[in-house]
Amino acid sequence: MFTVKIVGDGIARLEAAMDVVASDKMKKAYSRALNDTGKATRKKTVAAVAKQVGLTQKVVSKRGGIATQIAYGNRLSYVIRANGGYLLLKDFKPTQFKKGVKASPWGPRRLFDGAFINKGVYGNVMHRSGKARPMKSGRYKGQVREPIENMYGPAIPREIVQGAAKIAFETTSAEVLPKRLAHHIKRATKGVVS
Length: 194
Known about the structure:
Layout: H1 10-21, H2 25-53, H3 57-63, E1 67-69, E2 79-81, E3 86-88, E4 95-96, E5 100-103, E6 110-113, E7 116-118, E8 124-128, E9 133-134, E10 144-145, E11 148-150, E12 152-155, H4 156-159, H5 163-188
Antiparallel strand pairs: 1-2, 3-12, 4-5, 5-6, 7-8, 8-11, 9-10
Helix pairs in contact: 2-3, 2-5
């Protein structure tokens, strides 16, 4: 059952509130609610991704290319984007040992057997790949060399949509949006609609 009680200037206030609901002020209220929710969700998601991959939030935001597109006017959506490929293993505090390199992608430190830190290539962690072959030209012509490749860890765009990051995104947005929407609607209608 729905009961409406009108006291004093209640009809005039209700008319004014309905005018607001039908105007562009509501779009502003919706976009503000979406932006508030988006900021909170981004913060929690980046924190969850950082913990998930074993990096700081600053590095995740920078290397993962995390960017946002806010809601405004007729575009009522808040977008969180992550760009980029797999992160180099050198971002995960590598340490050289006789058997290989220890690094901490995805959290706990582990040994990457046979890997080495190449000081000449900005400290990248590398491993030998392929069959040894003699060099055909250059300084090392005639010497037998094995090809080497960089080693990689997680990719932020993949990690942001799975595991703890996905859960953080879904729970935060589900909790925050209804509250912020109610707040901004109440504010736009001067307390008549809440």
